[in-house]
Amino acid sequence: MILTIALPHVNPLMDSALVREIFPQVGSLLLPGAKLLDIKVDLSLAVTHDCPPESHHRIALRERAWLRQRLVGVGDEVVVGAPLLILTTDPDEDWETGPQRAARVTQVGILPQTNWWDQSV
Amino acid sequence: MPGQPLRLPPLVPPGLTVLRSGLRWLCEDGQVCAPGTIIACCNIGVSPLERSSRCVPEFAPENRDFQAALVLRVGGRVRIASGISLGGFVDRAIFHCPWEAGATIGTLEPLDDSDPIRTDEPLRLMLAAGRRVTELAEVKTGLLAGWHDRSRVWWADAGSMFGTLLSLGGCDMTWTLRGEHSNYREFLCELPGASHVVVVPDDLMVHNARVLLEQLSRTPEQRDLITADLAATFPFGAPSVKPTDWFFVSGLLSALTRSPIDEAKPVLNASGIQTITCPDAMIVSLISEHGWVLRHRRLGYTICLLDFRITETSEAVRDWIRTHFEPVWRDPDAIRRDYRELFDAVRNAGIRHFLVMNRMSTTGHEDILTYAPFDLPLGKTIASVRSQEMNLMLHDLAAERDIAIIDNDAIAAELGGARHIPDGIHGSGTLQAELRREIRRILALRGVPGFAG
User: Fold this and answer.
1) What rounded mean pLDDT belongs to chain B?
2) Contact with chain B for residue A52, Cβ under 8 A
3) Which fold has domain B209-218+259-291+330-445?
4) Which residue blocks in B38-184 are alpha helix, DSSP H?
């Protein structure tokens, strides 16, 4: 079965989110509880804001599946509902025929992750 | 319709001169105004009688943003006397009028003949003082407008019980106290006495317990060492450094060489100038207790900065921070120890009431069905777990020290978190009004002068 993970509406005021981290590699088997993505929601959008109303969230998987395709990369700004990942329940399944349902996930607010300490950022 | 004259309240103490600019009206002629409305304001200057061209030293740091606001005790229709204001710079920067108590500036008319104005003096005087981060920050747009590293308001009622509340909270607390008009009117108008509210915002340095403790105990020699070290090591001349980075280090140095808790806070009323160094009550926010702080590798002092402020500096500044500071993780136990130490230090300094606002700990936007994706300890990753651990720590602390908790968590949850605190920190006007009410209630219950009836 082909599964998809789309950007959830983690806050009713959000339109989009920034992808901060994608954890699994394409082709890997993911077990229930696997970390998938970290995203940042900034309710001030593109407007630079003092003390920005940001929140950080992690999306984790609740079922067994294989990651077949990443549709976004770290640093991408994606809109609510946009597909992020494609998974399949069998490792060799042809995923290009399109998703049959949304994967079961859980979404959790996480502490802000500092990114400036790493010199590469 | 006959009304009561609107007269300038008493302000000038013996031995001093108070000069003012023209009045800037904040209402229209004929406007119906509710009790608590600020109808006019002006800038003021205080000088000794014999040296009327020189400001008294007490107010020198706030001299350029020292203002008087005229507040209605009762509602009615405001009639503005003619010739009171000339507009333009004359009402902002030219101190051409001596403050004359009793001078009539207008009339307050009742809205209904059968309901006359029931006070002889419809005006109450609120004074406001802002200490600019830099004197370059000239903003003349209104009452307490501008970039201030400390702002204060107080009722200039002479002779009544006087009390001071010092806020060192985060943005959740600063803007709750400042209110919808940013001038503290909502908070102050509901207080029964001659209260004084001092707010030091966390524009750059976040006032967590460790930072406040170090500020309070830092010696002049330690301040000199920090100053010399910053001057020697900060990359002022690096190619990527922007002029705004110099403001960054300037703000940092100011915060490291001051102690907002026990620095002088002078107040003026018709009795004279009283310099407050020890507030009656102090309030902080639990959101200021970040997990990570930065400790100077050589001198050992702590700084806590908002992440987005660091991200906005140039790479050379971030490299300077990485070179000269190390990140230190603070779990709830470490924060509890810091709070305990801070509480004891401020008690020794004479501050009798210590209030802490807790954190919104839940969100309707998550559905945790398993904790498996998260490494232990969960409080290091999951925001709601961290908030709940911190709130619990605060309750434990309140069991061993006399700490009052402003229960932001419960109040926001009752109002509806998704609507009234959508990002978990920044609240709606309704939430802020409820928090102000709770702060007033606690201060009144504790009998803090000026805040208790």
Assistant:
1) 92
2) yes
3) Rossmann fold (3.40.50)
4) 171-178
